[in-house]
Amino acid sequence: MSVRHALLGLLSEGPKYGHQLRQEFEARTGEVWPLNVGQVYTTLQRLERDGLVASDDAEAEGPQKDFRITAQGQEELDRWLRTPPDLTSPPRDELVIKVLVAVQLPGVDVREVLQVHRRYLVELMQQWTRLKEDEAEFDLALALVVDAELFRLDSVIRWLDAADGRLKRADAEPAAAGAPPPVLRRRLAVRR
Questions:
Q1: Residue 171 and residue 154: Cα distance in Å, rounded?
Q2: Quick one: 153 exposed, middle or buried, by C-beta within 10 A (0-12, 13-18, 19+)?
Q3: 105 shares a domain with 55
Q4: How many domains does the chain have?
Q5: Residues of the domain holding 23
Q6: Mean pLDDT per 10-residue segment, the chain (192 residues)
Q7: Cβ proximity of 183 and 101 under 8 Å
Q8: Which of 36, 78, 81, 118 is most buried per CB count within 10 Å?
Q9: Are residues 70 and 10 in the same domain?
Q10: In terms of Cα–Cα distance, which of 42, 44, 53 is closest to 76?
Q11: Which one of 82, 112, 143 terminates a domain?
Q12: β-sheet with 66-69: strand ranges across
């Protein structure tokens, strides 16, 4: 998440001070991502250093110091909004790494690892669904965040299901030909 660009977006509406930016950021993101006020001021300092925001040079230092977006900051915000994120290479996903490591480790039941994570993700989906039913219908930002999280969790569960199916097929194919399954072959090779 780009706090930097979110703050530029908020400042594009008019001058604001740090605490106000923190409060508006949290309100507009469904209060799902709490923001440390220190992070706000550090980000504002960097934005000011880079010429993307300007502040009042008045005696107001600290919590009541107004910041406003510059023309260069508006250009940066517009560019960011219209530039798709770089999704060309897979992110370092902890769950994917766990499964890849589990496949290689002797004595680890990979399907158990998959099942533990699948159960956890289903529980998370149930929690997000309850939140959506309880509060999201009244808060558009929260509803959008909850929908995004439900879609993300669903895709991770589908990946776990696909991984489970792929592991089953990989174990079954060589076994039919009389050779040990690939996972077992790799585990045997590690032991040697």
A1: 26
A2: buried
A3: no
A4: 2
A5: 3-82
A6: 89 92 88 86 94 78 80 95 85 87 90 94 93 76 88 94 91 62 52 50
A7: no
A8: 118
A9: yes
A10: 53
A11: 82
A12: 16-17, 66-69, 53-55
